[in-house]
Specification:
The chain has about 220 residues and is α+β, with helices and mostly antiparallel strands. The chain has a domain at about 115-220: Ribosomal Protein S8, Chain: A, domain 1 (2-Layer Sandwich). It has five helices and five strands. The chain has a five-stranded mixed β-sheet, with helices on both faces. Helix 4 (about 150-165) links the parallel strand 2 and strand 3. Helix 4 (about 150-165) packs across helix 5. The radius of gyration is 43 Å and the shape is elongated. It starts with 7 loop residues before the first helix and ends with a strand.
Length: about 220
């Protein structure tokens, strides 16, 4: 039967290995102690430098402290300002190709009744829906008090900007001429003629009475 107890030879071997390992362990301990001492010295040096840098600083008393917190009113004003700036940038980004339009080219007869126009491919149902204000009005241009030249420029810019904003249906108020010298509408025929020459216009029709009647037109815009 084999004896599993360690013999004298094994004990001597373990003693030799332990004795050989002690110098290595001691060297590692000394090396670690040296590193720790260097780290401690560095921290003490940093703390001393900081203390010298702030030695002339006087702390504020609690009575003189003032904490600023943004109010809800300022937050709303900032949001409103940002919204206005975004709109201004979007408007400035609209690049319009100036299309010369004739004042009276294709103008309807002033004695005629309701105005209407549609580009090829747009059926009578579209004109009927315009007269009924089927599409919600996304923007409006009132030309009361405009000269013909200013009205023409304003109308072209209005159509371009409305399309750039994705507006499908707009209303243009040209008036019925009650304030004119002859009591006749001054811009009605011109607005109709200009709209037929603007490529962004798909159709227009005299507005229903609730939207201005014969003093305004409902305009359907091409968005693509």
């Amino acid at each position: 039967m084999r004896n599993n107890k360690p013999g004298l030879g094994d004990l001597k071997r373990l003693q030799r290995e332990s004795a050989a390992a002690r110098p290595e362990d001691e060297a590692r301990r000394q090396e670690q102690a040296s590193r720790d001492a260097q780290i401690l010295k560095s921290r003490q040096s940093d703390a001393l430098l900081f203390a010298r840098a702030v030695q002339s600083v006087q702390p504020l008393s609690a009575a003189t402290r003032l904490l600023h917190t943004p109010s809800q009113t300022l937050a709303r004003e900032d949001a409103h300002t940002r919204m206005i700036q975004r709109r201004q940038r979007a408007t400035a980004a609209v690049v319009r190709t100036v299309v010369p339009v004739s004042d009276l080219a294709g103008a309807p007869d002033e004695s005629a009744g309701d105005l209407s126009f549609a580009v090829p491919g747009v059926g009578p149902d579209t004109l009927r829906r315009l007269r009924q204000a089927f599409w919600p009005v996304g923007a409006e241009l009132d030309l009361h008090g405009y000269t013909a030249d200013k009205a023409r420029e304003a109308l072209a810019q209005f159509i371009d900007q409305s399309r750039a904003c994705g507006t499908r249906c707009v209303r243009v108020i040209h008036g019925v001429g009650h304030g004119s010298a002859r009591g006749q509408p001054v811009l009605r025929a011109r607005v109709a003629a200009w709209l037929t020459q603007l490529s962004g216009v798909q159709a227009y029709a005299t507005a229903p009475s609730a939207h201005g009647g014969r003093g305004a037109v409902m305009v359907l815009l091409r968005l693509s």
